[in-house]
Design goal:
The protein has about 400 residues and is of the alpha/beta class. The protein has helices at about 10-15, 20-30, 45-55, 75-85, 95-100, 155-170, 190-200, 200-205, 230-245, 260-270, 285-290, 310-315, 320-325, 330-345, 390-410, and strands at about 1-10, 35-40, 60-65, 90, 120, 125, 135-140, 145-150, 180-190, 210-215, 220-230, 250-255, 275-280, 300-305, 350-355, 370-375, 380-385. Strands 2-1-3-8-7-6 form a six-stranded mixed sheet, sandwiched between helices.
């Protein structure tokens, strides 16, 4: 069984909004054994919507659209769907009651434009949108299904999780007969080309129904083994163990979860706490560490010490160290880590200081030079990295290196 996603909205095609919805939906479909064949983005345009639906139904069993369901005039999807399925809009009492309850404390929202939201296509099956006003619509075309979801990410995610995937599992019995399994590990410290050479024999001898993918990002390479079919899934554990053995010297973790999640789990397991002091990363590291639920159990806080005065007056970095070695140096970054660990009274601390660019580099310290320090109960150590020349690339890679280094030091 295969699916196609159609994202609708001018904002997606002019770069004003990044399409994160498709990635979330793709992951949910994959978990159910549904192969996503294609993702298409189109304008809020009647002709484009109709052509995209015709094309999708020609090869996909499940079609999912997001966007174009709002109450404003530029949201035309609902009316186009009425034309496409030769139906008309009717008032849905349940949707109206839901919307009136949703906005009972906001009478300014319950206006004539919002009232259009409880008008739904008569031919559609309506599912509840628990957190929004746009109803979730399901259409059938023979044995094929169209699911229409709102484009607001948190609404889409809740709808997909609570309504669409359970609906698919209940209605489409063929789903249970399909099997797709992914096993992923993450490595660091080896170029992708060198890794491919290292794995050449392994890859050449994979069973026919198991495939290996290389997924590099921010200095980390995810290696994903995918097995298709029940027979192949019996072999994937063996191949995954073999893969781990081959890449052992570069292995970070043996799943696909972000590194900061692993750092948090190990800290919680040790009942330990951490703080960060950031210069070149400017708070990115703090954002990663506190982005997941439960981070308050281990993450105490951060000092973004971009200016040398902040490094000295807040973190206690010695003026002699700044003057003699410069802000981007082993001495300074170690003192930053010690300072924030002392200030926040934590078990561990990470500090970053570097030259993110595009300016500020020198022959001795070119753009991309980053010093990272890790303060632990057993002492403070630092490493110097050269992480590229693009500013965002440097800071993203620095954060990942900082987290990887911390994970190793907490474990051992």
């Amino acid at each position: 069984m295969c699916a196609e996603i159609i994202t609708i909205g001018d904002e997606l095609l002019i770069g004003q909004v990044v399409d994160t919805n498709s990635a979330f939906m793709a992951e949910r479909l994959n978990e159910c054994g549904i192969v996503l064949e294609r993702i298409v983005s189109i304008h809020d345009d009647r002709r484009q919507i109709i052509e995209a639906l015709d094309d999708a139904f020609s090869h996909a069993d499940i079609v999912i659209t997001t966007g174009g369901l709002g109450p404003t005039k530029d949201d035309i999807t609902k009316q186009v769907l009425c034309d496409y399925f030769e139906t008309h809009l009717i008032e849905d009492a349940r949707v109206r009651a839901h919307i009136e309850h949703l906005y009972k404390d906001r009478p300014d929202v319950l206006n004539r434009m919002t009232a259009t939201q409880w008008q739904v296509p008569e031919a559609a099956e309506i599912l509840e949108n628990r957190v929004g006003s746009a109803p979730l619509m399901v259409f059938r075309r023979g044995e094929k299904y169209l699911f229409c979801l709102p484009g607001v990410p948190y609404e889409m995610e809740i709808a997909m999780t609570e309504q669409i995937m359970p609906y698919i599992s209940r209605q489409l019995s063929a789903v249970s007969n399909q099997t797709i399994i992914h096993r992923t590990l993450q490595v660091c410290g080896i170029p992708e080309s060198s890794l491919a050479i290292l794995l050449e024999n392994f890859e050449n001898n994979l069973p026919q129904d198991i495939h290996l993918a290389y997924l590099p990002k921010d200095g980390i390479i995810r290696l994903r083994l995918s097995a298709y079919g029940k027979e192949a899934t019996q072999q994937i554990d063996t191949m995954f163990d073999r893969l781990q053995f081959i890449v052992h010297d570069y292995l970070i973790v043996t799943d696909d979860r972000p590194i900061e999640v692993h750092v948090g789990e190990v800290l919680r397991a040790h009942h330990a706490t951490i703080a960060t002091a950031e210069s070149c990363t400017g708070g990115k590291l703090a954002s990663l560490l506190n982005r997941h639920a439960g981070s308050s159990a281990f993450y105490m806080g951060s000092v973004v010490a971009y200016d040398n005065r902040v490094k000295h007056e807040v973190l206690g970095v010695r003026e002699d160290s700044l003057r003699q070695y410069g802000a981007v140096s082993e001495a300074v970054v170690c003192e930053m880590a010690d300072g924030v660990r002392r200030l926040m009274k934590t078990d561990f601390a990470i500090a970053t200081s570097g030259i993110a660019g595009p300016d500020g580099g020198s022959a001795e310290k070119p753009v991309g030079t980053v010093w990272i320090a890790w303060a632990t109960p057993n002492g403070t150590t630092a490493e110097c990295f050269h992480l590229g020349r693009l500013r965002s690339q440097v800071t993203d890679r620095a954060c990942q290196r900082a987290l990887i280094g911390m994970l190793k030091r907490i474990k051992y």
